[in-house]
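> agent: user asked for a holo structure of the chain below bound to adenosine-5'-triphosphate. Plan: (1) validate sequence alphabet, (2) canonicalize SMILES, (3) run complex prediction with ligand conditioning, (4) return tokens. Step 1... ok. Step 2... ok. Step 3 dispatched.
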Amino acid sequence: MRPTLYATIGPAGAGKTTWRHQHAPPGATVISLDERRSALSPCGCSADPSVNAAAVADGTADTRAVLAAGGTVVWDVTNYLPRFRAHLLDLAAEFDAATVGLVVLPPLLTVLARNGGRDGRICAVCGMARRVPDPVVWAMHAAITDALPGLHREGWHTLHFLSLPPYLHRRHHGRTP
Ligand SMILES: Nc1ncnc2c1ncn2[C@@H]1O[C@H](COP(=O)(O)OP(=O)(O)OP(=O)(O)O)[C@@H](O)[C@H]1O
Ligand SMILES: [Mg+2]
Ligand SMILES: [Zn+2]
């Protein structure tokens, strides 16, 4: 079977992990940077920046092993910057893996509300909270929105728009018949 790499693309609080719990293909290896940071962090925080590089390196190594064996990986990450997406596309290309981008982009206010429902207490050790500051969510949302028109040129074999608001779907542009 052809190795396959799925990758979510969506701001913090968009619903990527929720989607993955419900819909990740059976047998797929999930690479969650949140979960890897939690496991590596001395304070156990999923946002601990001090262990981010190690989490990415471990996730990358595990991805190579799975793809080399013809398996499927699901990266549960924000992927809001082009270089994050390029890293995963390059990784997949090493193994001629099929790539599936999963855009999880509900309207900004929905994402802010979901993020706002999270624990805002700041960890005394790493200085981070599970709730992401609103301007950070906003910036991630804007970056992905800006990237949408060019996503199909990045090299994904398939793109799925899981929760794009209707007004951003191409078929809704212009006058409806
Ligand atoms: N379709 C949905 N309808 C209602 N609530 C949702 C939906 N999807 C996710 N949520 C809620 O929104 C919050 C954020 O969801 P989730 O943890 O899946 O986001 P995420 O994209 O993984 O965020 P992060 O990048 O920070 O990990 C959770 O409280 C979740 O229960
Ligand atoms: Mg998540
Ligand atoms: Zn911490």
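> agent: step 4 complete. Summary for user: The CA atoms of residues 129 and 176 lie 44 Å apart. The radius of gyration is 17 Å.
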